[in-house]
Amino acid sequence: MRIAIAGAGAVGRSIAQELVSDGHQVMLIERDRKHFDPNSVEQAEWVQADACELSSLEDAGMHLCDVVIAATGDDKVNLVVSLLAKTEFAVRRVIARVNDPTNEWLFTESWGVDVAVSTPRLLAAMVEESVTIGDVVRLMTLRQGQANLVEITLDESTPFAGRAVSELTLPRDAALVTILRGGRVIVPQPDDTLEGGDELLFVTTAAVEQDIKTALGY
Question: Where does the RCK N-terminal domain lie (predicted)?
């Protein structure tokens, strides 16, 4: 894919390096000369421009991008970049970084955002996920809140140990997508069995999150 990243600070450069390593074409757009360092991600295309300026985005070829990532440290800039990418250039997928959690409510489809990534929220979720047994931990919100990625860890004494995935009676709007077991990532098949300590990842609607917990005996 061709991916544009607005903001070449530490976050933007790290994202770019990962995407380049995965074989994607990456364009970094940075206004501040202090952060404009093509040598830091040599495989990426670098553009020194203001990502909030329509003409700059036109010159950079934003219309050719499959994905735009607004990764600056300024939420106002990220919102403007998202809106321009979606409304002016019809970019299929727009991902925006949320720096201040109190601004998260703004990062919606109305501003052109398909996926909002709040670092503070993700860190809090990771902490909860690492210490919580039997509770539903929301890791990420998808499609403007229409679905969530949630995690629940089975305790060692779970009555579901040794039972097949097919025996789980999950609510209609929930799907078990991954089982994390030690260093393994398991794509669950109906005959796969559960074990105590398994971390189960579900894609679900908010309305049935607690129903998942009930289905697992918590």
Answer: 1-117
Nearest to 134 by CA among 150, 155, 156, 148: 155
Q: Does residue 148 lie within any of the structural domains?
A: yes
Which residue range(s) make up the domain with 163? 132-216
- Write a three-state SS string for 22-76: CCCEEEEEECCHHHCCHHHHCCCEEEECCCCCHHHHHHHCHHHCCEEEECCCCHH
When divided into structural domains, the chain yields a total of 2
> pTM of this prediction?
0.64
With a cut of 70, list the residues of the chain below it in pLDDT: 119-134, 143-145
Reported as a single tens digit per residue, the pLDDT across 76-98 is 999 999 999 999 999 999 999 99
